[in-house]
Amino acid sequence: MLQQLLLKHLADAIQKAAASLSRPQKHGLLIAIDIVLFLAAIYGAFGLRFNTLDPVAEILPYTWLIFLLIFIKLFVFLALGIYRPVLRYTGLEFLFSAARAVLFSSGAFVVLAYLLEFLQLPRSVLLNDALLTLLLVVGVRVSMRWIVYHLTYQPNYSNPPERVVIYGAGEAGSQLAQALTYHNGYHLVAFVDDDVSLHKQIIQGLTVYSPKDLAKLLAQKSFDTILLAMPSVDRAAKRQIIERLQCLSVPVKTVPGIGEILCGKVSLSEIRDIDIADLLGREEVVPDPELLRMNITGKAVLVTGAGGSIGSELCRQIAQQAPKCLILYEQSEFALYSIDMELTEAYPKLHKVACLGSVTEQMQLSAILYKYKIETIYHAAAYKHVPLVEANPAQGVINNVLGTLTVARCAIECGISNFVLISTDKAVRPTNVMGATKRVAELILQALAAQPEMTTCFTIVRFGNVLDSSGSVVPRFRKQIAEGQPITLTHPDITRYFMSIPEAARLVIQAGALGKGGEIFLLDMGQPVRIYDLALQMIQLSGLVPGQDIDIKITGLRPGEKLHEELLIDCANVSQTRHPKIFCANEAKMLWEFLHPRIEALLAKARRDDHTGVIAQLQSLVPEYKLTAYQLARSVKVPVSVD
User: Fold this and answer.
1) What CA–CA distance (Å, rounded) separates 185 from 380?
2) CA distance 58 to 65
3) pTM for the complete prediction?
4) Active site residue: 73, 384, 426, 581, which one?
5) Residues near 76 by Cβ (< 8 Å), separated by ≥ 6?
6) Cα separation, 558 vs 553, whole angstroms
7) Catalytic site includes residue 426
8) 436: which residues sit within 8 A by CB, 6+ positions away?
9) Bridge-partner residues for 538, per DSSP?
10) How far is CA 322 from CA 31, 296, 347, 351, in A?
11) What is the pLDDT of residues 169-194, one digit of tens each?
C-alpha cells in the first residue's frame, strides 16, 4: 500500500512537472538529453575501437571532429522532425525515424570526410557510433515512454479498471488494444479470435486464445467485459458469435468503427452495449440512390408526425437528399422542438419550417400545402400504441382515419404529386382497434387512388415493429434490466418482426418512389423474432443470469394482442419490385362511392364517443377484424407492450 502511495505521488509530480513545461521547453529538454546520448555514444565507440574503458586519451586528438559530428547529428535530427512526436504516443514508427536520422547524419559526416581528408575519424568508430546512437536514442525514448505510462496510468484502486477481453485479433482489434493502452478505465486481459493460425500468438503483448477457451479464461483471469472488434464481419456472423458468448453471462459490448476512433470523430467512451440489431442478424441492402432522390431532391416535402419515431427519422433521411424545403408537421410541441433543433444543428443549410398542428385541421393543413408548394407528403402521424388506442377507440378513429382522410383531401385539393402513407403489419387481419383503423386508412387511399383522373399518386407502405421506437419492447426491457426489475412479457411464444428505424425510413422513401397509385408495398422484415428469446439474450449480454439476477414474468396477452403478426392478407397476391427488400401486394379494395358513406358513419360514431358503434362499424369496414373474448370483456388495464 505504501508503494502504491509513493507511486501515486511520483506520478502526480511528473504530471505537474510536464504540465508546467511548454512544448518548446520539452523539445529543449529532449535536445539536451540527446546531446548527452551523442557524447555517450562516441565515448563508447572509441572504447570499443581501442578496447578500453577509459578512451579519453584516444578521444582528445579528435575533439573538434567529435563536436562537428554532434552538431551534424543535431541538425539532421531537427531537420527530420525527430522532436515533433509527442513522447507518450511514440510507437514503432519512431524506430524508423531515428534510424533514418542516424543514417543521414553519419552518412553526411562520411561524405565530408571523403571530400576533406582532415575530417576523418576511424571507420570503426563511425560505425560503432552510429549503432550506439540509434540504440541509446530509441532505448531512452522507449524507457521514458514506459515510465510515463506506468506512472501516469496507474490503476485507480478505489475504482479499479474494467478487465477486458478483445474478440477479434485482426487489424481493428490490434489498433483498439493500442488505443485502450492509454485509457486507464480498461485493463486488457487477452485476445480471442476464430482464426486458428493466431491462437497462442502474442499481439500487443497479449496472448490470443480460441473462443473455446473463453470459459476457462474467465475462471483463470476473471474478466469483466468482452469487446467485439470486428468491423468487417457481416451481421449474420456477428449474431452467431454473440449467441456463443451468451452462456458466459459476461457483458458483451462493441465499439464504433476503429477508423472513427483513430480519426477522433468518436472516443472510446462511446463503447456501447451490443446493438439489438446485431441480435437479429439482418443484413441491410444498400439503398438505391435514384429511388431515395426521386420524390425529394429539389422538391418541397412535408412530413406529418415529424416528431415521432418514424417521422423524425424520415426527416433526417429527407434532409440528406437535399430537398428544396422540408416542412415538419407535428401536434406535440416538445417532439417538434426536438427534431427541429436536431436538424438545425446537423443540417444548417437545410430550408425547413416547423409547423404545430393536427392532421385533422383541414384549413390549416391546406394553407401550409399552398404556401410552401408541397410536392411530396409522408403521412406518418398516427396513434400506434395498441393498449392506448384499445382503451380510446373513438380518438384512435379520429386521428388514424379522419386524420388520413383529411391529409389525403388536402393533397388532392392542393395538387400534391406524391402521398405516402406509413402503415403497419397490425392492419393485416387486425385483432385490435389500432390495426383496424390503419386498415381503414389503407382502404381510403386505395379508393381515392382508383378514382378517375386522380393526379395525386397515393402509395401505402406496410411494415412491422421498428427497434427503439416509442412503445417498443426493446427500450422497456433495457430499462427493466438496468433497474434490476423483472422483465414483463405477455406470452412466452409471442413473436414480432423487427427492423431498425433508419432502415425502415430509407425503405419507406424508396417504396414511395416506386408507386404508380394505390399500391400497398411491403418491406422485407426478415424472420420473426421470439420475444422471449430476445429477453433472454438481452439479460445474458448484460452479464446477468436469467431467473437468478433478472426474472421473466409472463403477464398474459392483452386485449387485441396477437401472438404472431402478418404482413399480407393474401400471401398469393404479392410481386417483386426492382428493390430486393420491397414487395408489392394486390389486396382487396373498395370503391369510393361505397366506402365514403361508411367512413362518414364511422366518424359520426367516433365523434359521439360511441364505443360499441365504433367497433361495429370497424368490423363492417374490415371483415377480417375479429374481436377476442378478452376484448369483449373490456379488460383494458394491461401490462408492458411488445409493440
Assistant:
1) 43
2) 13
3) 0.66
4) 426
5) 101, 104, 105, 108
6) 14
7) yes
8) 427, 430, 618, 619, 621, 622, 625
9) none
10) 54, 7, 10, 9
11) 887 788 788 777 767 778 888 999 98
